[in-house]
Structures are given as structure tokens and as C-alpha cells.
Design brief:
With 238 residues, the protein is α+β, with helices and mostly antiparallel strands. It has 3 helices and 15 strands. The longest helix is centred in the N-terminal third of the chain and has 17 residues.
Length: 238
Amino acid sequence: MGGIIKRLGVLFCFAAIIVFCLPVGTQAASVYGQEKDGISVELEESDRYLTREIAMDLTQKAVDKAKAENKGSTSLLVRDYNHLSLEALQGIAEIAGKMPLRLKADTITGGQLDVRITLEPALAVQDMCLLATMDSPRAVWIKELFEGGYDNQVMVISLAEPVGFGMSVEVIAKLEKGLDAETLFIYSYNRSSKETVLLEETGAWLDENGFLHFNTSVAGALVITDSPLHWKGIGENF
């Protein structure tokens, strides 16, 4: 039995689009692929690399627009960006100042939202890889591995960030049909060490459009099921 399952408390530790959100305390209906109540501004092709300067300029436009419309918060929505530097994240936080701002990083597959990662740039302590998918060969392979070895149905989110985010981020993905949203267990899986870790205090919830929201500071592969993992007892555990 080479695998280890142990418990781990979750640590608290852009084409790009600007989105201006509803005032603090107001929740918009979850609409993915577009923002129901937002205004978007496309980046020019020459600006596809999000430098600190570009990030700060876009943030200033978002803040100015939100203030003009008497809105208490704002956000930046970026799509299919693999890497954001700490300098760019700090620049966003510097311009946002006291206005609450969330960075939303979407990975789009087949024209639809695959996975969204949201975070507060002011809390960032490192560069981050923000791509995440349930559709990559790695994600599919891990799903097949777990469903072959355990009695559980699982969904797998593969995060490009290899180690951890250094802070708590929110992960959003469509809950796979057949999984019970009321009894979810979320694990991280390290392929190299064959270690499976149960994440606790994730604050998991399901929105009206069937998207699962949860918090984590852990990266790598996340395995989600609706009952404790139950080994079939065949072959080597992992």
C-alpha cells in the first residue's frame, strides 16, 4: 500500500477583459463566458503580455469607471494567461488601493469556461501560473487512474501552478454530473510522491448554474468526489 491519505487544513495564506462588478454586498447571477452586469475592454494584440505597466493602466480604468458609477468594488477578468508576475499583481493592488478588487483568471476550452481561479492581488507573494483545466491529457489520465483504483466517481482539475499559490484562491469549475454536491471531498494528488491529501475547510458550495466554488492554497492536481476514497483492493494503492 504505497499511497498515503492524510488531512491537510487549507492555508490562508489577459484576450484580457476588465469587468466592473456590482457594489459590495450585492451578488450578480453567475454568468460565465461573459459578465452579466459588467463592461469589457479588449486588449490590443500587441498588449497580450501583461506587464506591470499594462496591468496598472487597466486597473486604473477599472477603478475610475467603478467610482464614476458609484460601485463599491471592481474586478479584472483575464483569459488563458499562463503566467502573471508578482510585479504585475502588486501593480494591480497598488492602483486598486482601498477599493476591493478580485482578479479572475479563466481557462477557456472549446469556447466555454473550463476553470476559473479568483484571487486578491493584494495578498500575492509570488509569481503565479493561473491556467487550470479538466480537459488536459494529465487531468484525463488522473481521472482514469482514480476511477480504476477506487470505487468512487471523481472529477479532476489540473492546475498549471506546480507547488502552491502562497495564498488562498477560489477555484470554480462545473460540477460533474452524478456527483452529490452535499457530500463532496476534495483531495490534492501528487503524482511523484503518490500522496493523496484531503483538503479541509474549503468552503465548497454550488451556484445556481451548477458551478462548484471552493478555496485552496494547494496546486497540482485536485481530485473531487462525493464520498471518502474507497480502494478496490486490486493492485498497488496510490
